[in-house]
Amino acid sequence: MKITTVGIDLAKSVFQVHGVDQRGKAVVQKRLRRRQVLKYFAQLPPCLVGIANGGAHYWARKLQAQGHTVKLMAPQFVKPYVKANKTDAADAEAICEAVTRPTMRFVPIKNAEQQSVLSLHRARQGFVRARTAQANQIRGLLAEYGITLPQGIGHVAKGLPGILEDAENDLPGVFRELLDRLRAHLNELDRQVQELEQLINAWHRNSEDSQKLARIPGIGPLTASALVASIGDARNFKNGRELAAWIGLVPRQHSSGGKVLLQGISKRGDAYLRTLLIHGARSVIRVAEKKATPTNQWATGVLARRHKNVAAVALANKNARVVWALLAHGRDYNAEYKLAA
Hints:
This protein has helices at 37-42, 56-65, 75-78, 88-98, 112-143, 153-165, 173-205, 208-213, 221-231, 240-247, 271-290, 297-303, 308-329; strands at 5-9, 14-20, 26-33, 48-51, 69-72, 251-253, 262-265. The protein is 54% helix and 10% strand. The protein is α/β, with parallel strands linked by helices and 341 residues long. The protein has three domains: 5-98, 2-Layer Sandwich (Nucleotidyltransferase, domain 5); 112-205; 214-329, no CATH class. Helix 2 (56-65) links the parallel strand 4 and strand 5 (69-72). Helix 5 (112-143) crosses helix 9 (221-231), helix 10 crosses helix 13 (308-329) and helix 12 (297-303) runs antiparallel to helix 13 (308-329). The strands form two sheets. It has a five-stranded mixed sheet with strand order 3-2-1-4-5. A two-stranded antiparallel sheet has the order 6-7.
């Protein structure tokens, strides 16, 4: 009864374990409390462990330290292997079966430093969304009193002091106190965003790979640090196109009967990375529309044939492939680099 493959369905308190032997016969089906997981796997001989839930990177590192081979999978790829109704036992069995498939796509395991940098990005993204929501709420409340402000957080921050000091706008005293409180909250959110950006920039300055990527036009410290922390070892991807597909920047296919039909970008993978790359490409496109330079020559050529939004996505795709080439081969960015014939 030697266990060779194990599937774990992670949860908050109770974990479901499904183990099979070398013939694929189920030999273990049990539930474990969180505190029992590491003790249980410490008693098992080294085996293949599949995980496809939140918190997988932490448990992957712990189980790898015990000598097990751990592979992470996206939940949407495991779902087709669930045979009947959804239960913890059925999910664990599906994970155990999916991890042995030769065509399964696996997720690289992130180390603690990568997760910490991505946590900074996620926290900053949350503060940015909250700041935008707060500014929109202030604009909406002012509109009820006939006062309109242009769109944009900057206009709200600049216009509020004058509105609060204007005694002729007939705003009630209670509403003025509310506006002052909301302005203080908006300023606090902005301060939190700036402080997190300083932490990200400090990590960027200490990372050689992140500084290397920041030399690419359209990629700054935020995008570079997020890419390095998310990708990890670029050699996990076969080529640059696979990395671009992982981010969701390649066309979506709907082909049948030998007829190939390409649609818009797939938008699969990490939406945050895709957003950063496209926004950075838009800045390059904006400069290329005004003046052609050696660094944006490729973007200028695309602009001559396609709409600027299409050109921005194309440039983001190109930058993703350049990122893979720099990280996988350990090269520095060279704007004049050309492949040999």
